[in-house]
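Collaboration report, partner site 2.

Our partner group contributed sequences for two proteins of shared interest, and the home lab folded both. The records are reproduced in the order in which they were received, starting with the first partner submission.
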Amino acid sequence: MTTSNPVENLATLIRCPSVTPAEGGALAALEAMLAPLGFAVQRVVMSAPGTPDIENLYARIGTGGPHLMFAGHTDVVPVGDAAAWTHDPFAAEIADGQMYGRGAVDMKGGIACFVAAVARHIEKHGPPQGSVSFLITGDEEGPAVNGTIKLLEWAAARGERWDACLVGEPTNPDTLGDMIKIGRRGSVSGALTVFGVQGHAAYPHLADNAVRAVIALADALMDPPFDAGTEDFQPSNLEVTTIDVGNPAVNVVPARAQASFNIRFNDSWTADTVKAEIVRRLDAAAADQRLRPGRAPIRYELRWAERPSHVFLTRDDRLIASLSSAIEAAIGRVPKLSTTGGTSDARFIKDYCPVVEFGLVGQTMHMVDERVAVADLETLTLIYETFLARWFANAGT
């Protein structure tokens, strides 16, 4: 295998059916790429009750600083309807300049390109004047319990320290070089159970309709807006994602309704303050009688999901400038610095070192016929290779 070729690297990884939580041979393939380059590779299995065991990989070349981490995941989402794919989702077939396969952009492609970039750097300059590590999980697309968060703890307990991290998630919305992620909004999820009194639809005065109650609470969660956004972040946004009653009878007033919601919040809030605002809204709406005239306040229970994601913003000028200038030098584009989108494993890494995210174009991630332009693999490798040289130069080595 020629590890300096990102197309070959990606084809090898795609052909490993690593649908989360299965390792599928992907980490073994990655180890086979890194070990000949001089990386010390460790495969670490993490466990927790009620969750599948997850195999992860940590590899490092070099012993001194500065220390740059590349982070990502080899697990992929299920293929869905395999018959709907125009190419086998695990064959890495190339057609019309596109490589097809599950994980092509999310995110085996980013890993393949960074391996190739490191290989080229070593071919031209020898080992980096510092250290480079790969922190790769098999649990990003799953519950994220036995993956990056535990691998970071494991490595830190063994004395690993990092000066910066690049996560290879597909950050670009349309064209390679569009966007670097320099932060992420926080995320909090919750579930409501609303209690009423069952009765006959023709005699509503003898019942208390839980549907009316859950609508009132859901409306209060979504309106008014939580804020208008900040200098670095878009407005916070809460979405009610489910309302379930489970009532099969059209003439029965239901006594119980459930709703789930998620809020993505900016740096106007913390997880604690946004939770407090949600409770304030629910309590105020519970006493509102517009949909339930003459009724006592709505009775409800609120359960918070475990482990909220906290908002963060990276302000490391050396890291951001090294990557931005590498993109501009390679393809002549000035990337936008963004905090949009969902969460990623960067939410765990930010507790250990400054972190940014940059990878391929994400338009087909999780879709049938996920694919990447072969030309983009070479371009991203060039960007990563240029970034490596500039980051270590800016670090004073």
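Second partner submission, folded after the first:
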Amino acid sequence: MAQPATVAQGWPDDPVPLDAATAPVPAYGDGSLADLLPTLVAGQGVPGCEARIAELTPADRNCVFLIDGLGWEQIKAHPDEAPYLTSLLATSRGGTGRPLTAGFPATTATSLASVGTGLFPGGHGLPGYTVRNPDTGELMNQLRWKPWTPPKVWQPYPTVFQLAHEAGIHTAQVSSPVFQDTPLTKIALSGGTFHGRLSGEERMDLAAEQLAAGDRSLVYTYYSELDGAGHRFGIASDAWRGQLMFVDRLVQRLAEQLPPRAALYVTADHGMVDIPFDEDHRIDFDEDWELRAGVALLGGEGRARHVYAVPGAQADVLTCWREVIGDRFWVASRDEAVALGWFGDRVDERVYGRIGDVVAAAHDDLAITASVNEPNESAMTGMHGSMTAAEQLVPLLEVRS
């Protein structure tokens, strides 16, 4: 902790609030996760889809392997644990050696919906880990889908997988069986056939088989355990590094089985940062009277908060949050965040009320936890959600047969 200033040194000036307009908005439209599948299926001739990522070359058979929590910066920092992934860094984004951006917030439910629908968060309507349902006033957990909400009402648009299947492309998802019937899968990743396999090796082998099963194929496969190790132990832990080593072998296993005329794209839904367990890096909302004042509901997650004010208190809550954490978080009103494009180029009317009256995105290594109402999330070491490079930048590594 920093030492207090002495009289001779002089007291520091009041912290300068961050300008919300300086937040690095994701590269929606030509370099975000939402742009990937529309680009791939446009190259396969699916009507109504356009190639948005200009650097990618069409292939007849496309496989997307999404590794939960595998940020661009984390790969670059661990060449010894991930030699194969490291060898592919120069292939990222069509050989430019550049990453994609996840989208805001950089969290699993939002990112998977962006990948599967090809829409930005303001369109598909999953703009956070937990958000308020304007129809009920309750917080809706969009990863665990609690409380129950009709999926097709919450996200009514077709997925890219459905469009590809209807266009005659052999379409398949290969993942853990536990995800087959989840609402998130249905609204974001459904279309074609779902194949459940328990082990990572089985998924890689079946993904390769499914890729070869059609003259034109679109296959999606997924691995979640790296993210779980990061949340529990942190990305500096042996457990996380061990998972990274395993992921590296899985990618190579799949790459070595690609059928002819195929492209494998390895990407992720977000990166991650470790947040120390001390008062300088964690502010407990449930114990902080200033941040709680005028707040009816706290949504989002530690590094990307949706703050829902008591009616009539929106301006006061915005002022307070800017005064208390505005030098370490980008803090914006709902209208400011929408106008700045944090959720994409448009926000559907049904989605507008899901966004917080105040939206706060972490700039520093800091989290707003909630020890009483979010005990499990507050106990996590690794976190994500904001617009920092460590969270936003994700790979698009490419292998072609």
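Feedback sent to the partner group on the second submission included the following. The longest strand covers residues 61-67. The longest helix spans residues 238-255.
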